[in-house]
Design a protein that fits this description.
- The structure is a homotetramer of 268-residue chains.
- Chain A is an alpha+beta fold.
- The first copy, chain A, contains 5 helices and 12 strands.
- In chain A, strands 1, 2, 3, 4, 11 and 12 form a 6-stranded antiparallel sheet that branches. A 4-stranded antiparallel sheet of chain A has the order 9-8-7-10, covered by helices on one side.
- In chain A, helix 2 crosses helix 4 and helix 3 crosses helix 4.
- In chain A, 47% of the residues are buried.
- The mean pLDDT of chain A is 95.
Chain lengths: 268, 268, 268, 268
């Protein structure tokens, strides 16, 4: 699918503040960036980072006063296959080395605390895709999507108890349950078509059958309309803005629309 | 039922240590102490405290070195009625003033965190006794009795996630769920007949239909064989030994046996 | 000192909600209520509770829709003595029985976690008043008064790490340090003269030398201008409004002014 | 320095259990492995992993029953320079991309919670090496080395409050303080000469002046006698054994001795 994505962020920094931003679509194997533009209204030149393996990009700079950060791209996100029940679960021995860290608990996804619960709830389901789909059903049945009950420091433990949260919280709990059953899982930030209201989306991926599968535990946006930004152990790794000191977000406008593909354009 | 109860505790205190002990059967309206004996192998005279309303007793002293604390009593614990589904739940306005604190969250029973879960799980069950019995069924179905997975600082939050614990943990989670549904609940320490291995038992009570009802969420000991010691908001209030500094428990032997009642004695 | 105090609270309840309110000045031995008035704009008759020992008062009712809760009183708060360094610390054996619970850790004041720190920091200071005054100095030197960094669920542990908070947080940490050194301490809600901006104030008391001493760890209001409302183990016990479900506070206006005493009145 | 290191671990696995072990000396640029041997008493062939950039090694296998895991190596750990006060602190813009994750909070090192404390305590000290050395002094002055007060789940928050811990806890708190002041820091597992009793050691590194500097916050072992095993965000990443299910460690014997270097050997 060809998608137009854009982010217009305005921040206020009361003193010169170092930041790392992850808002650019990843140059990952599963999507093609057809065109893009990044501009900051003020500040020094950007340091641009690209992770070789994943194609994920971040930029670093130091900002002061009121600053606009803007990004616009046209991305072909290809074919995003949907996880089916038959996707096979790997033994640890079969996993690529770089996947192993995603088996471990992390700050917001303390999967070691959930091993007994996950066993109780999901061991009767066939391993692999079927088990992950059962976890998504469980999340859907037991957690409410509610704004304002969680913060940037909310862990999967809290969400499990409180039974409510937003996309970040659903993903953290989904990752936690997967890891608790030995399934590698990681957090992913994305631009998402049809998300209402439009915003950066936090989803997650599991590694099964030799590849990562993108999942939206909130079921608020279709997988085939997602443009990948960054991935990591949990939300801390994929923040769209990491700043040295607190700063104030004055406005944030995200848009994602379907771009007419060439055939359609020609026909018109 | 007439019961012989005894506790023989041996502690080692590396320096003079102030302690408060709650090991004596309560002089509560629901039981009668037929005879009793309390002796400490060394140390100054005891300060004896009795709470007028509840008849609960504690003693204070300061101990040093190796000390034996011993208690023995014969108690008639009367008739302990079993909670039935029809016990009526009160509005706050109907509750005795002294019951109100048991509606509030406490350290090990943070019921305010569980309101959404409790509503989801138990609102479809009729209020009052039926709802509390449903909570006990839930605990029995979802939490394993396992030694060694919890400590004196384990909260109901942890037990809810970990799905395992001992009597203290079961009671904390039971209290938490009850309070989350507006049912006053409090922790109770007890001598319990038929508990294996014999130990102080941690159970809880809910206030319904004008009285407190004793419950054992572990289902390890019959309610009719319990002798009440102390009650409070959670385990911190009913510790059998509260000490100023850490001390070492060298041995602890609890026994509870049924005493022949007079009729039987006479017959023999 | 003679003080006029008033609270005008407006809440919105989306459904009929049971509440317990603690906004009335206590009928405690240390203050005299010269006149008072309590009125609620709608709702059923109030259940009025008074604790015999402390004179603390709460009322219960069930409210719906937009409701104003208003209280106005003239209180002579007598002489509030200031804690001096020589106030003597008691052995546990000397304490009145009803003071003992204030030695224990509670949810927001987990003093058992702070024993090593308190020993390190304060054992070199003489026990009793001097030690408590050293704790207040420590709080003043190490914690910033900052709005917005804490919530109703913030514990003394968080405040100790974050080094910032509001009156509730300062009091919780003060209580925690005192209990960690075996000094009974409890939370107190109050009307406070000269507090800017005017609000309910959260302070605390320690038990030394045979009596409770009122302390304001924020140093924002003078002790002699305080009117006592309620006391308890920590903030949960002294909330000015405990409600069954979440409700919305639309406005809250507190005023405390010095009332002209009779002599002055006559002179005018 | 040339060092003989060895680890003999015996575990009992009640069912077939997947494990990842990190006990081999790293093939890192700062040390040379002169000879080594790794043998497991039973189990399938090992999957061996080496991280290209760091030379860190792990092996994966699945074990059952009682199993011995043994490693023995002779390592020349070269020259380990000691951090001096003049080591320069980098702006984020100057850091190598792969160092950036070590600026972020992690589960056991939640540095975002400590920003105000770190600023209060260390902002008056010159940035860079001097500031890190001040942090080590602070740790030494304020935290006691005590066995048994912490577990594998203890965070830097707990250690900061409790003021006691073991090498893992000291390192977590050191890492946390460094990150809170914008200094990249990571956990390192090591074989350490002269550590008493001999054990795997948990130390940490900060990135200053264009390189990582190894530090032992417990001051129990000299930096120049350390052989690097693995590094990561915190202890979870450098566990010497990560296992799918709980397993029992029956024995663990670590030895580290100085090997005679060739010159000495020849001279003898």
């Amino acid at each position: 699918m060809k998608l137009n994505v854009s982010a217009s962020l305005t921040y206020s920094f009361s003193s010169p503040t170092q930041v790392i931003a992850a808002i650019e679509a990843a140059h990952s194997p599963d999507q093609t960036i057809l065109s893009e533009e990044l501009w900051i209204t003020s500040g020094p030149a950007l340091i641009r980072d690209t992770e070789a393996a994943s194609g994920e990009r971040r930029f670093r700079t130091a900002l002061e006063g009121q600053v606009g950060i803007n990004y616009r791209a046209v991305v072909d996100n290809g074919q995003r296959p949907l996880l089916g029940p038959d996707a096979r679960q790997h033994d640890w021995a079969e996993l690529p080395r770089e996947v192993l860290p995603y088996l471990l608990p992390s700050r917001f996804c303390p999967s070691d605390e959930f091993m007994r619960f996950a066993q109780r709830e999901f061991r009767s389901v066939r391993g692999g895709g079927a088990r992950v789909l059962a976890m998504l059903d469980w999340l859907n049945a037991h957690v409410d999507y509610v704004h304002g009950v969680s913060t940037a420091k909310t862990t999967a433990e809290h969400t499990f108890i409180d039974r409510a949260g937003v996309c970040r919280d659903f993903s953290h709990l989904g990752i936690t349950l997967a890891r608790a059953m030995n399934i590698p899982a990681r957090a992913v930030s994305a631009y998402a078509l049809a998300l209402k209201p439009p915003d950066f989306h936090a989803v997650f991926e599991v590694y099964l059958d030799g590849r990562w599968w993108l999942l939206d535990p909130t079921r608020l946006a279709p997988i085939e309309g997602m443009v990948r930004i960054a991935s990591g152990r949990d939300a801390a790794d994929i923040a769209f803005l990491t700043s040295e000191y607190n700063c104030q977000c004055l406005s944030q406008v995200i848009t994602v629309t379907q771009a007419p593909d060439e055939a359609e354009t020609r026909a018109a």
